[in-house]
Task: inverse folding
């Protein structure tokens, strides 16, 4: 009878210890195995040379380490941004982006296949939500990029959970992923080098505020009043701005951490001076930072970014009102770097054949 193997990618050290014990293997081996997976990027047990050969064979008979398969990649000639499309075990695909900064290398990971949020400026939700990713599938994106960087003798220094999907509707897997990312014998990335971005799922914000994690919380705001935000982001019908900001205030009160508000500037939609003044009124007195993002053009949506002069004027209005504001530097502008674009293009090409 063929043994059905168990995937151990994504298990905690305590969980792996119990799995090994069920196979009659010493529990202390769990840390050795996880070090091979998360610190050295091993994809099978035979690479684990400090384990005896009979043990490696036994582990291979009962367990396996799932691996993403790279479908394609795009490399920006402007700034070295790399966009990966990875295939999962069930054939679904997800995007991951390597962002190169002066201060290190950041990975933008996806947490779901597709997205249910339906934001009008984003390509991720065009096909709806397919499924949540497991913690193992999320951390595998970081491991794949880490392996890519090894050829440059570089490493991943920070992670932004801003790819396809809404992290706070896949809460348990995202929390497990961050714990694995932080595991001191593996990638050992500090919580302060992790950012979680949400469209504004209030129960998740409240829950996250109780975790006592020094991460950066980023809120996709994108509009200064409910009428416009509801048109751009359907989630606003469930959690309107006043409800969302009350949750953000609770988060700040509990964590004493500054929140970043993301604001995608869309030409002719939310980029007028009056919008900037309304946004300043909304955020006045709050411990926050505004990140202005000239929108990535998405063919299916018809949106375009404003002219640089208009972006600068919007930023100046906020700054004069005492709101700390930066403009996100465009990265990967010559490739499908925006969320969902590469996956969407590949799926469309496959459907046309």
Result:
């Amino acid at each position: 009878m063929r043994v059905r193997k168990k995937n151990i990618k994504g298990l905690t050290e305590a969980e792996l210890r119990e799995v090994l014990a069920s196979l009659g293997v010493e529990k202390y081996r769990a840390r050795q195995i996880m070090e091979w997976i998360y610190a050295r990027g091993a994809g099978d047990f035979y690479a684990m040379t400090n384990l005896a050969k009979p043990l490696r064979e036994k582990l291979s008979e009962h367990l396996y380490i799932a691996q993403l398969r790279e479908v394609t990649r795009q490399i920006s000639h402007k700034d070295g941004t790399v966009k990966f499309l990875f295939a999962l075990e069930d054939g679904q695909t997800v995007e991951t982006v390597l962002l190169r900064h002066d201060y290190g290398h950041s990975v933008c990971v996806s947490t779901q296949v597709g997205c249910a949020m339906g934001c009008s400026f984003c390509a991720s939700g065009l096909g709806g939500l397919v499924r949540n990713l497991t913690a193992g599938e999320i951390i595998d994106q970081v491991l794949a990029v880490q392996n890519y960087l090894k050829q440059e003798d570089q490493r991943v220094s920070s992670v932004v959970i801003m790819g396809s999907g809404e992290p706070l509707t896949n809460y348990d897997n995202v929390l497990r992923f961050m714990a694995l990312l932080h595991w001191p014998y593996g990638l050992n990335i500090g919580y302060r080098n992790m950012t979680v971005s949400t469209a504004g799922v209030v129960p998740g914000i409240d829950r996250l505020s109780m975790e006592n994690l020094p991460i950066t919380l980023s809120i996709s705001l994108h509009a200064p009043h409910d009428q416009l935000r509801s048109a751009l982001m359907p989630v606003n019908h469930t959690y309107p701005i006043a409800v969302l900001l009350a949750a953000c205030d609770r988060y700040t009160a509990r964590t004493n951490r500054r929140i970043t508000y993301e604001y995608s500037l869309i030409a002719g939609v939310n980029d007028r001076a009056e919008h900037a003044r309304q946004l300043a009124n909304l955020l006045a007195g709050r411990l926050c930072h505004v990140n202005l993002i000239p929108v990535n053009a998405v063919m299916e949506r018809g949106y375009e970014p404003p002219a640089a002069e208009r972006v600068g004027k919007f930023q100046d209005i906020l700054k004069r009102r005492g709101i700390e504001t930066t403009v996100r530097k465009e990265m990967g502008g010559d490739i499908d770097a925006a969320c969902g674009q590469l996956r969407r293009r590949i799926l469309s090409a496959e459907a046309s054949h």
